[in-house]
Amino acid sequence: MGNLVGVTHTFLNSNKQKLYCLKSKTMMSKILMFVSLCALLCHTSCSSKKEEAEAETKFLLTSPLRRDTLVTRVYVCQIRASQHIELRSRESGYLQRVFVDEGQFVKKGQMMFQIMPLLYKAELQKAEAEAKFAEIEYQNTKQLADSNVVSVNELALAQAKFDKAKAEVSLAQVHLGFTEIRAPFDGIMDRFYVRQGSLVNEEDLLTMLSDNSEMWVYFNVPEAEYLNFKLNAKKDSVMKVNLQMANSQLFEYPGLVETIEADFNHETGNIAFRATFPNPKGLLRHGETGNILATEPLKNALIIPQKATFEILEKKYVFVVNKDNVIQQKEVTIEAEMPDLYIIKEGVSENDKIVLEGIRKVRDKDKIAEYEYIDPKVVIPNLKVYVE
């Protein structure tokens, strides 16, 4: 019996060991499969990152393009009516009647205001009566002088009194005329500064009147651009400009620069130009603002895309790739700006290779292994350059 138990115990232990070994082998197989899977994933991920890194190292390069072009310069401007005047009272009195309304278009000679004229009518009647009396006195004295009854000096005295009386009549007529305020030219009324029935004094402002048939637009030009304009302008030529209104739309009629002020402003270094614009539809009004767009031809301009530049502390830079494929950071000076383009004054040449795309992925003195070069004649037209 004892032997049977011992055999049974030995048999059970043997089976347990076999079962343990089987489980261990199964666990080891799973571990090996998991490690293999991780290695495969890691290899795939590393390969993907390597491919992405290789893709990221491919840059697009181009060169500055030198050619004749047109650049549009923008100047802030003030729009003024060709005639814009104040209408003031020339006499004191009550404003008896107002014949027009604010914002109304008036014709030359049209009655606008009338100051109570009764006092001035009375003064005119008095002056006319005195002139009549002086005339009669003069005629009587003349008859006596013709008969040698009175001296020539007495006749001259009567003549002087008569002339003085006529002058008083003319003066009274002028004062009476000042009670009627008429439009001196065709124009548009401004708002009223007094109302009917108000007591106005001499020189009080009544309203303002603007002739908007043509507009004078003033804009300031820096000294260097003024010199370029004068040196390149042909004899008797007139500079044509366009007006961009406050709503960013272009005014439909072009203007002509007809006047340049005599002196430069020493504080700003600018000189004022005046352009004249026709305004047949009355769209423009005195006091508006806008921008003058002046087109200027540039010979042998050096053009680069704006996207090839970056800014550090308000200075413009580009990345230039040398013959050893090493990146060099260079500052450029902007002469003019166009849509999507810069005109370069100095900093690079047409033989340089500049980074067009990928400037955020490199730094100064980096070396790039692979890039694609695109001819600037292909790049520039796709950036909306305006060339001749």
Structure characterization notes:
The strands form 2 sheets. The protein has a 6-stranded antiparallel β-barrel. It has a 4-stranded antiparallel β-sheet with strand order 6-5-3-8, with no helix packed on it. The N terminus is likely disordered. It is elongated and about 125 Å long. It starts with a helix and ends in a 9-residue tail after the last helix. The longest helix is centred in the first third of the chain and has 55 residues. The protein is of the alpha+beta class and 388 residues long. The protein has 5 helices and 19 strands.
Strand order of the largest sheet: 2-9-12-11-10-13
* Alpha carbon gyration radius: 47 Å
Q: Give the CA-based shape.
A: elongated
Oligomer: single chain
Q: What's the rounded overall pLDDT mean?
A: 82
Order of helices and strands: HEEEEEHHEEEEHEEEEEEEEEEH
Tell me the major beta sheet: 6 strands, antiparallel, barrel
Number of helices: 5
Helix fraction bin: 25-40%
Task: Kindly report how far apart the N and C termini lie.
Answer: 118 Å
- Strand tally is 19
Poorly predicted residue ranges: 1-23, 42-55
Alpha-beta content class: alpha+beta
Strand content: 35-45%
Key words describing this protein structure:
5 helices; alpha+beta; four-stranded antiparallel β-sheet; disordered N terminus; 388 residues
Provide a concise account of the structure shown.
The chain is α+β, with helices and mostly antiparallel strands and 388 residues long.
